[in-house]
């Protein structure tokens, strides 16, 4: 397994409210995380960092995950814990009122990958069947699209594109989507915040991921593309590749 994490403030924002990383548990299994914080007075930074650091700590203290059921249960239990931590913090710190964060997280073993998401940070897979999005955005625009009220073209430029229907930490309880896929030699997962997916098309992502570049160069190229197209938002991504080698790069 090889993996790389990269984040960039973008060209407009003063602060980076995204966060993420790649972490190993006691058995050396990988957990990839991307979070995109929201809330006034820099509370978005607080939400995304708290979510990341707590999930990282829980994972690093965890033992080997043997089955997809265990992976799904682990993500559900610990993301719910983090939701409570963030919710309680926002209630006891007025400057953090209403803060929250998206999350997409993937546990990758040598047999499967289990992905959980809340909000509009995404996970894609590149495998022998092609390149596709695995997660569903929990956003107003995606709901309008799914119900047939707007077209895919309308969704691209919708004025309320940033309105989320679900986020981590904004309510006392939260629903998440969790799914497990077979993860095989040569397959690649891409986790990213909307700073990438709003700017770079799926065809462009696929071209970069299929290229002969190193994982680090692929990550750098994707962030460059998002910035070339305006870079109005923070841009964060993790790429995980199932291969013989073992390499992990965390880069801010």
UniProtKB/TrEMBL annotation:
PROSITE patterns: PPM_2. Residues 2-242 form the PPM-type phosphatase domain. It is an enzyme of class 3 (hydrolase). It catalyses: O-phospho-L-seryl-[protein] + H2O = L-seryl-[protein] + phosphate; O-phospho-L-threonyl-[protein] + H2O = L-threonyl-[protein] + phosphate. GO terms for molecular function: metal ion binding; protein serine/threonine phosphatase activity. Coiled coil: none annotated. This is protein-serine/threonine phosphatase. It comes from Bacillus methanolicus (strain MGA3 / ATCC 53907).
């Amino acid at each position: 397994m090889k993996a790389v994490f990269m984040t960039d403030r973008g060209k407009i924002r003063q602060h980076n409210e995204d966060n993420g990383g790649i972490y190993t548990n006691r058995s050396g299994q990988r957990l990839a995380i991307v979070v995109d914080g929201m809330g006034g007075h820099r509370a978005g930074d607080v939400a995304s960092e708290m979510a990341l650091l707590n999930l990282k700590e829980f994972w690093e203290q965890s033992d080997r995950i043997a089955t997809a059921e265990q992976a799904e249960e682990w993500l559900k239990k610990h993301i719910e814990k983090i939701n409570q931590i963030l919710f309680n913090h926002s209630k006891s710190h007025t400057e953090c009122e209403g803060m929250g964060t998206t999350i997409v997280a993937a546990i990758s073993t040598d047999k499967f990958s289990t992905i959980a998401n809340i909000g509009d940070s995404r996970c894609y897979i590149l495998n022998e069947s092609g390149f596709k999005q695995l997660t569903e955005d929990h956003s107003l625009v995606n709901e309008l699209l799914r119900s047939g009220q707007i077209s895919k073209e309308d969704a691209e430029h919708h004025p309320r594109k940033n309105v989320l229907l679900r986020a981590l930490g904004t309510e006392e309880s939260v629903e998440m989507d969790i799914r497990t896929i077979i993860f095989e030699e040569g397959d690649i997962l891409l986790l990213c915040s909307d700073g990438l997916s709003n700017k770079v098309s799926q065809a462009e992502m696929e071209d970069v991921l299929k290229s002969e570049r190193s994982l680090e160069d692929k990550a750098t190229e994707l962030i460059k593309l998002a910035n070339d197209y305006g870079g109005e938002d923070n841009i964060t991504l993790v790429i995980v590749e199932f291969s013989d080698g073992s390499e992990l790069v965390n880069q801010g």
